[in-house]
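Deviation from plan, reported transparently: WT7 complex.
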Amino acid sequence: MANTQEIVSVLTESRVFPPPEDFSRRAHIRSMQDYQRLWDEAAKDPDKYWGDRAREELYWKEPFQTVLDWKPPHARWFVEGKTNLAYNCLDRHLPKLKDKPAILFEGEPGDRRAITYGELSQQVNRLANGLKSLGVKKGDRVGIYLPMVPEAAVAMLACARLGAVHSVVFGGFSAEALQDRMKDAGAKVLLTADGGWRKGAVVPLMKNVEAALPNAPSIEKVIVLTRTGDGKLPEGPKFVAWDALVKGQSDTCEPEWVESEHPLFILYTSGSTGKPKGVLHTTAGYAVNASLTTRWVFDLRDDDVYWCTADVGWVTGHTYVVYGPLMNGVTTIIYEGAPTQPGPDRFWDIIERYKATILYTAPTAIRAFMRLGDGPVKQHDLSSLRLLGSVGEPINPEAWMWYRDVIGGGRCPIVDTWWQTETGGIMVSPLPGATPTKPGSATFPLPGIHAEILDRDGKRVPKGQGGLLFVTKPWPSMLRTVYGDPERYVNTYFSELPGMYFTGDGARTDADGYVWLMGRVDDVVNVAGHRLGTAEVESALVAHPKVSEAAVVGRPDDLKGTALVAFVTLKQGNAPSEALKKELAVHVGKEIGAIARPDEIRFAEGLPKTRSGKIMRRLLRDVAAGKQSSQDTTTLEDLNVLAALRQTDE
Ligand code: WT7
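Because the crystal trials were delayed, the predicted structure below was used instead.
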C-alpha cells in the first residue's frame, strides 16, 4: 500500500498566466467556459461524448455499436467497429495532403530529408508488403530497435497497416534489455539498423542485436537498415537488408481492417519489481485519444510545424511524434541526435531553420539548456514558436519561467502535460487557449478524464493536502493489460481501490482546484523524464559476481530531477574501491542501458532492514539526500547499520 503520509508539499507558487488573447481567439477551445461545458457533457453522458469523438477522429470501415463495455477492470471500447491506424494516418489525407511534408528529418551529422504524406504512404506500403513476404500477419509481434530516423515511423505504420503488433525498444537500451523484451513479446521479426548517430559517435545497434539474438529465439528475421555503415550484413540466414526487402515491392498494400480492440503495440515500462511490464494498447481507443489530445492540447493548425523531441522508444514518441500528429495531417520534425551536437544551440538552430511553431520537450532538457545560459538561444530567431509543451516529470517553476521567457519570448503558452505509458495519451494538461497556467502545475484533467486525488480509503482529500492520483473511470486510450501477465495488470493498477486505476503518483490540488503532481509514491523513480524501477537496477547490480546485496533509491537532483544512488554490500573477499564503483556503473549500463547507470555508488557493510528482512528504502532515501531522518525506525532490525551508513557520507 502506498504511503500518503510521505507526501508533503513544499511548493507555493502564486503566479498565474492567462492565455494570450490573440491565441485564445484562434484556438480550438477558447475559454474556461468552453472547457467546463465539454467536461460537464462528458461527465453527464460519457457514451455520447466518447462516441461523438470517436466518429469525428477516425475513419471507420465498419461503425461501432457499443461505445464502452466495462467489466472492471477490463474495458472494451468502440466494440464491433473496424478501422486501421495507418489508413487514418496516411490514406485518408492523400487527396489533399499528398505533397505536404509529413516528416522533416534531420540526422545528427546534418543530413536532411523532407518526406511528404504521399512518399511516406509509399514507403509504409512497400515495407508492409515486404513484411508480408516474410510471413508477418495480423497479430504477429514485431520488434523495432532503430535510431530516431523516419524509418522508425515507417516501421510502426507498416505494422499497424498489417495488424501486426509493434514493440519498440529504445535504441539506448542494451542487448540484454532488448533480448528480454523480444523474448517476452515473442517477436517474430526485428527491424533494426547497423547503427545510429549520437554525440558524434555510432550507437552500435547491430552489435547489440547480434548479442541478443541467441537469447531471443522467437526472432526469425532481422531487417537491417543501413544508417552509419557500409551496408554489409552480418553472416547468417536471419539477416535481410531493408533496402533489398522493399525493393520492387508494390507501393499499394490493402490495410488490414482490424477490430477496435485489436492490439496495436506493446511498450515495456518499468515497475516496482525487476521485470519490465509490457503495456498493451489496442487500436481504436488509443487512436481516438491520440488524435484528439494532439489537436486540443497543442491547438494544432494546418500550417503548424510541430516538434516533439521524444524518442520513438518511449510512449511520447508513439503518441506525439508519430500517431497523433500524422492523424492530424500536420508536419512533424524528427531529429536523430543529441541536443548539444555539434554545439549547444542545435535545438534552436533546428527551430529557426524549420520555423517550428510548437516545441514539446522534457523538463530535464529544459534544465540542461538553462545551465548553458541564454547565449546559445539568443543566437537564433525563435519567433516562429507559438506554443511550448513539457512532459515526463514535474517541471520546477524556475525552469518553467525560463522556458516561457527565454525560449517562448514571453508570448507562448506552456502546456505541462501529465500522463503515462499506461494512459496512452495526455490526461491532465492546460488547453492553451483556455486555461490560465501556473508554473509547475499540470492544471486540470481533460474532458472525459476523471483524475482524482484520493486517500487510501478512496475518500477525496481536501484541497491543499497530498494524496494518491487515481483515474476513477475508464478512458479510451487506457492500457488493456500487461502482455502475458493479466494478473499483474490487476495487481499493479487496480488493487489499491477496486475498479479505479492507480497511477502510482502523488498529487494535490490547490485552492483553485489546480492539480500539482508530486512524484512517484512507489519504488519507481523518474530519472531525466524516464521511469525506472529501482528493483531493476538492483537486480542488475546483484547480477555482478562481486555484489551481495543492493538497494537503489532516488535523490533530488537539479538537472535530472532524480539521481540514482546505489547502496551496495560486497561479497566476502572483495574490497570497496573507486575502480569497483566504476566497474559496477558500467555493468549496470551494459545490463539495462546508460539511463540506468547509478550516479553514485556507496559501499555499505549492511543495509537497513525490517525484522522480516525487507530493505527499508525510505531510510536510505534520507541517507542519500543527506537528511537526518525524522522517520520511524522502530521496525529497523539493527540501528547500527543506519549509523554506519551515515558515517560513510563523503
Ligand atoms: C510518469 C510516467 C508520459 C510520457 C513520458 C513519461 C511522470 C509524466 C509528468 C508531468 C509530473 C509527470 C509521472 C508519471 N510524469 N509527465 N507533466 N508532471 N510528472 O512516461 O515513463 O510512463 O512515466 O512520469 O510520475 O507517472 P512514463
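The pocket of WT7 is lined by residues 269, 314-316, 391-394, 416-421, 442, 503-505, 517, 520, 526, 530-531 (CB under 6 Å). We consider this an acceptable substitute for the interim report.
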